[in-house]
Design a protein that fits this description.
mainly alpha, 5 helices, globular, Helix Hairpins, homotetramer, 74% helix, 99 residues
């Protein structure tokens, strides 16, 4: 993830895209990518969604990548570590939803 | 991230939630969480979104966590590694958008 | 719908909310409301979603309302008539997807 | 709107698409369309979003149409009248946010 963050930062800096990357815009882009991911599943049954064909899976992989890239980017702009945030949240979830 | 994945798997298994976690449902939950994240920014100016107050930032941190947890969960159900997917996608992006 | 538009305009004007209602912000709010609507269905099976309880249906009704209100608001800000747009789009869809 | 609903129903029936149109799936499709609409605004400033070029506006018009079509479809499947729902919701909003 650390290496991914460095690549994401370098990518946006080399292209001068920082000016577009306000947290507001990145949050909007994150939803749009999440929706592109969901689009692959919208007309499938749940069972079909568990067995998607290999060529479709490659497209889904790219959408998952886009969501993660924007999430890493957004967290970085806010000074947050997304993996640490997830660890902290799971602790909360364990308390909220006991086994 | 590997440790996060193990925690996410254990969490859902201990609660018997696997049956709800079809890729279709997880993709839908991922959008919903992304929207909850975006909700914090919707009425802010871009400038305001760069300087959100500390207490608001803690809520945003939890939403970022939720998005990552569902993304890790979804990728696992599809047999995909989200970080590897992101690395592969950046290679594609570099070709698509030359400096 | 014309009456609805007049109410929506009056509501935002009386509260001085026009300054927040840029098309960008309204489009973001529209997604957020759509996600709140989808949240009611995310863990249901398709069959369950066809038979939701009455008290849940009342909440869904309010979410549908919120989506329509933002859509009417956004279309108005852009000088568009959403119902006319839908009629025009169905003509295109009929051509695109022949019976 | 009544005429729009009749066209939407006829369109899906003539194509045998009712079996895909569970409320769950339609709610998912509604978000996806809302995201396609938002995509047109994600990198614009709020000011730019108030002055989008004519050719872009035609694309936005089609996305607004898609959102309304799915909303009308979903409401119909749930036995709800979206315009009446919006009128009822505005009454609630007026109470919740006094002038």
């Amino acid at each position: 993830m650390e290496e991914l963050l460095q690549k994401v930062k370098l990518f946006r800096e080399e292209r001068g895209w920082d000016k577009f990357h306000s947290p507001k815009n990145l949050a909007m882009a994150l939803i749009v990518e999440s929706a592109e991911l969901a689009e692959h599943f919208q007309w499938l049954t749940e069972e079909e969604s568990r067995n998607i064909p290999e060529d479709e899976l490659l497209k889904v992989k790219d959408e998952i990548a886009d969501v993660l890239i924007y999430l890493v980017n957004l967290a970085d702009k806010l000074g947050l570590d997304p993996v640490q945030a997830a660890h902290d949240k799971i602790v909360k979830n364990i308390e909220k939803y006991p086994v």
